[in-house]
Amino acid sequence: MKIIIYSSKSRILREIKFKNIVQVFLIIFILLIGISSVALNQIFFSSSKSLLAENKQLKATISSLNKKLISIQNTLNSIYDIEKKLRLAAGINYNDEYATGGSEESPIARSLKSSNSLSELNKFSEELINKVRYQKEKLEQIENEFSKREELAKRIPAIVPMEGVFSEHGFGVRLHPILKVWKFHEGLDINGLYGAPVYATGAGVVKFVGWNGGLGITVVIDHGFGYETTYGHLSKALVREGQSVKRFQKIGECGTTGLSTGPHLHYEVSFNGQKQNPVHYFFK
């Protein structure tokens, strides 16, 4: 097969064989394939190089995260050891779902050392988050317990309310000095000078101020935690009902009001409504 090309400018007839045309197209096709191959190879090489770099960076990141998570786990173990001592001091007992502690390496730390995937790291990080939350809750419980104990230490009646001499007839059954009948004496009598200062034996809120029968002018303080104290036979009260008081705060003065043979303070301590021997609460 032949193809004849006529040029009007040169007025020359040219004859091109089909075979030659096929050869030309074949050469062009081969060149295109070669160029494409080179381009694709370059792209693939560049992509592979980038993937290798990313993979190397990923491994480095995983290794770094491993070390950080192991460090967090070891820190948690140390915190647990401290928390355990505080818990014993606070008298708190509970089941330790996440507790490990001790110097021995934990199972999660051993697993982390051999971990090489992000999915495993994610699993361990979630576990550590749960342990941190759990530990936070337990430490808050201990903090609350110590706060209660600190508050109790402020409120519990623990000092002698007035300078003086304890009566020979203390807490318990005695012959009433005025009524001359055997009665249970619910408090402690402290003989002192008329007008001697009387102090609150613990922090609390004044529950009652006024005349209280045989006790005369009386102050009652609610210390919370089930404790109440009563101060009787006062010559005067220096506080009002509803007032907050602190330990060592002056609340009245010694007197002889009510059924009394002389200046003295009648002092009572009750716990959950039961009268207690005040002597047992005084600091030695």
What does this structure look like?
- The chain folds into two domains: about 1-155, no CATH class; about 165-280, Glucose Permease (Domain IIA) (Distorted Sandwich), CATH 2.70.70.
- Helix content is about 40%, strand content about 25%.
- The chain has three helices and 14 strands.
- The chain has helices at about 20-90, 105-115, 120-155, and strands at about 1-5, 10-15, 165, 170-175, 180-185, 190, 195-200, 205-210, 215-225, 225-235, 245, 250-255, 265-270, 275.
- Helix 1 packs antiparallel against helix 2 and helix 1 (about 20-90) runs parallel beside helix 3 (about 120-155).
- The radius of gyration is 46 Å and the shape is rod-shaped.
* First-last Cα distance: 130 Å
Q: Beta-strand level of the residues, as a percent range?
A: 25-35%
Radius of gyration: 46 Å
Q: With helices defined by DSSP (H or I, 4 residues minimum), what is the helix count? A: 3
Q: Structural class of the secondary elements?
A: alpha+beta
Mean pLDDT: 76
Q: What's the multimeric state? A: single chain
Q: Which percent bin holds the helix content?
A: 40-55%
- Count all strands and give the number: 14
Major β-sheet annotation: 10 strands, antiparallel
Topology order in helix (H) and strand (E) letters: EEHHHEEEEEEEEEEEE
**Unreliably modeled segments:** 99-107
Number of domains: 2
Shape: rod-shaped
